[in-house]
Amino acid sequence: MAPRSYWKGYLKLSLVTCLVTLMPATSDAERVRFRTLNGKTGHPVVSRYLDAGTGAVVGDEDRVKGYPRGEDEHVILEEEELEAVALDSARTIDIDCFVPSDEIAWIWYDRPHYLMPADPIGEEAFAVIREAMRATDRSGIARLVLGGRERAVLLMPRGTGIILWTLRFGDEVRPEEEYFAGIGGGKPDAKALALVKRLIDERTRKWEPDMVEDPVQENLLELIRSKKPKKGTRKSGPKTARGGDNVVNIMDALRKSIDGKGKR
Predict the structure, then answer these.
(1) Domain presence at residue 257
(2) Which domain of life, per UniProt (predicted)?
(3) Is the pLDDT of residue 254 over 70?
C-alpha cells in the first residue's frame, strides 16, 4: 500500500511549474513505544487540558490559540484568522536562488524529504529542473511552510527524484569557534599518528545500513516477547553499571589495537 502524501503543492522555477508531492525520507514508526499505565489498576493513563484557574476540564470545542502579551493577557486568534495570513509558501515551493551543492555545511541540514511529481503531466517540468541542477552541480534554495512555520529548504537532485532538506534556523546553529577555541592546536606525536592511521585503514569497510542498527531496540523487543501481560505490577528501574576507573596509556592501547588484542 502506497503511503499517503505528507504535503502536496507546486514546485516553481520562474515560469516552470509542476504539481509535486512531498514525503518524509525517514520514519520512526518501528521504534518501541510505551504507554503510561496506572500501576495499581493496569489501566492506561489519559491526559486532559485543564483550566489553570478553575481546574475544570476544557473540551475540544472550547480550546483556542492565544499569544501572550503579559502575565495574564493573551491575544486570541481564530482558525479563520490564522488561515487568512497563510503565506504562498504553504502551497508552493518557489526556488528563489541556487548555491554550489558543497557550500552548505552539514550542520545546517535538518530533516530530509522525498520530492516527486504528483502526476504524469508534471514529470517533464520536474525532470528539467532536476537535471539542470545536476548538470550545473547546484542546489536550489526555497521556502516552505511546514508544521505552521515557514522554513528555508534545500533541493538536491537524487536519482530520478529530488531530496528536500529543511534547513535549521539561523539562531539554532551555534558557532563552532565558541567551543573549539580552547583546544590545543599542536601536532600529535608522529608515532601515535602513524598507529592511528594504520588502525583506521584496518577498520575501513564499505558503508552498510546495519552499521546504525539499534541493539537496544532488539533487546527491548526480545524482553517484551518473553514476558506475559500483567496488571498492577511495578518494575524497579535498571541498575546503573559502574564504569571502569583504569587509565590506559594511549600508546599501549593503540599497539594492542593494532595487534588485535584490544577490545572494541
Answers:
(1) yes
(2) Bacteria
(3) no
